[in-house]
Each structure stands twice: as structure tokens, then as C-alpha cells.
Amino acid sequence: MPERKREKRPGVTKYADHDVIVVPNRLKKKVMRRAKRNEPDPLAAAERALEELSAQFGSWMDDECRTLEDARQSVHRNGLTIVTRQALFRAAHDIKGHGTTFGYPIAADVAETLCRVIESALDMAQIPLTFIDQCVDSVRAIIREHGQEHAEETALDLARELGTLADELLGIAAKPSDSSDASPPLAPA
Amino acid sequence: MIRIDFNRLRFLVIEDNAHMRRILRTLLYGFGSRDVYEAEDGAAGLEAFVHYVPDIVITDWAMPIFDGMELTQMIRQPGSNANPYVPIIMLTGHSEKKRVISARDAGVTEFLAKPISAKSLYQRILNIVINPRPFIKSKGYFGPDRRRNTSVNYTGPERRKTNADVIDQQPLLDKVKA
What we know:
The complex is a heterodimer of chains A (189) and B (178). Helix content of chain A is 59%, strand content 6%. Chain A is mainly alpha-helical. Chain A has a domain at 57-173: Four Helix Bundle (Hemerythrin (Met), subunit A) (Up-down Bundle). Chain A has a two-stranded antiparallel ribbon with strand order 1-2. In chain A, a hairpin with a 3-residue loop joins strand 1 (11-14) and strand 2 (18-22). In chain A, helix 5 (105-120) runs parallel beside helix 7 and helix 6 runs antiparallel to helix 7 (151-173). Chain B is 35% helix and 21% strand. Chain B is built from six helices and nine strands. The radius of gyration of chain B is 17 Å and the shape is globular. Chains A and B meet through strand 1, strand 2, helix 1, strand 3 and helix 2 of A and strand 1, helix 1, helix 4, helix 5 and strand 7 of B. Strand 3 (32-34) of chain A pairs antiparallel with strand 1 of chain B, so a sheet runs across the interface.
């Protein structure tokens, strides 16, 4: 296990119902410094490294797509159970989260639509399997046709239509609005 | 211009998706870090946290076994581990307001919604290093001060009681040294 030096303990100011603890700023002391002359920009270096990695993003999206397809097949075989629903949500959620970073923002939008329906529907039985199929097939098609002529326009149309369809579905089967969505207090305790 | 010596920072990345782990590792290496540990679920992440004592934890929210929120709650236990004050960056595809508030209330230091970029990650790390917030320990909360700013327009009641004894505790180590 890596050794760490014994450090200053935090300073504590006690109040009636809370303590304020000022932790010694070890990181600032340890890593902050003035830039040297002609020192390369770390942010630019990271962006370059990401750019170099981007050659692999297409095959990564194919992997994500296969996971989504497997989850869809499992739903078809076993119905929408807690397990299959979770797997489908997780696969779609990964594409929602990574799609834009990997250069597939419209696939991410469609995946977000599928996530929204899975997450918001009161009763999974009210979500037609055809809707799940449409979303999964659209994500696969968008990724497959990525870079082809007119593919982006078609993808945008698909994403819009599925978004509208999701709104209609949730209009029937939406959860009551969540009060925790309200604005946070300006001054939390 | 100010720079961070990333090669002196130890990171722990907890993320179940191998592709996203690779992206994060690439970005951190690009910044200049060489000390990056990885775990692929919350349980392995907690073990790695105890073992490697990282300077900064970057965790995904949705993960198997236990998720990033549960992991944060386990780390933010005063006195129970090596560093309950460790800065935690929560990485997630959930960007809804209620999610951000839940993460804040669990003791997350910074929230980073996907899609991530080099710039967004760099800024979170910079903020952690340059502007660390004090910690608040109350009956229902232990974590970084959730009041990032003082709002001059706030007219509601002050919910923290400040009229009691104020005891400025010197760090014990300093006392011993004196």
C-alpha cells in the first residue's frame, strides 16, 4: 500500500447544529505552480490524445450497439422484467452518455428517448415492444449509416418522431410530476 | 499562468464501462497524470479507495453492486476511513436537476454530466485544487459546503444556527508541536 506522509488535521469550528471543517489544502500546495516558458498546454495535449483515440470510436459504438441489441433480444425472450428492463436501460443509458463523446449525438438522442420512456412509465406493460424495437433499430441504423449522404437528415427525422411518440406514450402512462424536481433552496442547511 | 502538476496527483476512476474508463484515462494521461487507478464497480472502487488513497476520485453514477451515490455515502463517513474529505467528481448521464441535488446532498464535490470533454474535466479538477470548500458536518449531512456562493438576494430564514458557542479547534498535531 502506498505510503502517505502524516498530514495536518483539519481545523474545526463548532456551531450549535453543525461543524465547519477546514481541511488543509494539501493539493494546492502539492501541485500548483507557475507555468514554465513555452510549456505545452495540458488541455491541448489531452484533446490531441482524445483525437488520436477517436479512430476507435466507431468500433466502440458497434460494441455498445451489440449490448443494446442483446438487451432487446432478452426483452423479447423473457418480457419486460426487472432484470431485462434494467439491462435495456443500462445499455441505452450508456449510448446516451457516450454517443456524443464518440461522435454520434443523434444516436445518443434516440437512446435518451428510450431511457426516458423506460424510466418514466408507470407500468412497463404499457410500453409497446414495437416502440423499444423502433428505438433500438433506429440507434443501430444511425450508427451503421453514420457518414453516409443524407444520413444525418434521416437520423434527425427519426429522432424527432421517436421523441414525439415517447411524449404520446408518456402522456398516457406518465408518472405524476415529481415534487423533488422543484428548485433547490438557495441556502441549504 | 498557473499550472497543475498532474504527475503529482493520484486518481481513482470508478466506471463500469470500459470505453469510458479508456476515455478518462486518456484525458488524465493527456493532462500529465501518471498515477491513475481504475475499478469497474462500486465495491471494487471502495476497496481501491482504501488501498490506494487517491487524491481525487472520479466515479460514475450508475454501476453494478453499488452505485456512485452509495459509494460517495460510504466514503463520506467522518472518521471511518483514511480520507473522508477526498474530492469526488460524479460522472453521469443523468443531468436532471433532482439528480444533481441528490449528488450534492450525498457529498459529491463536483458534478460532471456526460458527454464529457477534456475542458469540462480539466475545469472540475482545477476547481477542486484551487477552490476547495470547507466541509460541513451536521446531523443529516457530511460533505463539502453546499453553499458555493452567498446570495445577497436571499430573504429566507438562516437555517444554520450560528448564535451558539464558536469553538475554533486547533489541529491536534499543531498543538502537540507547540
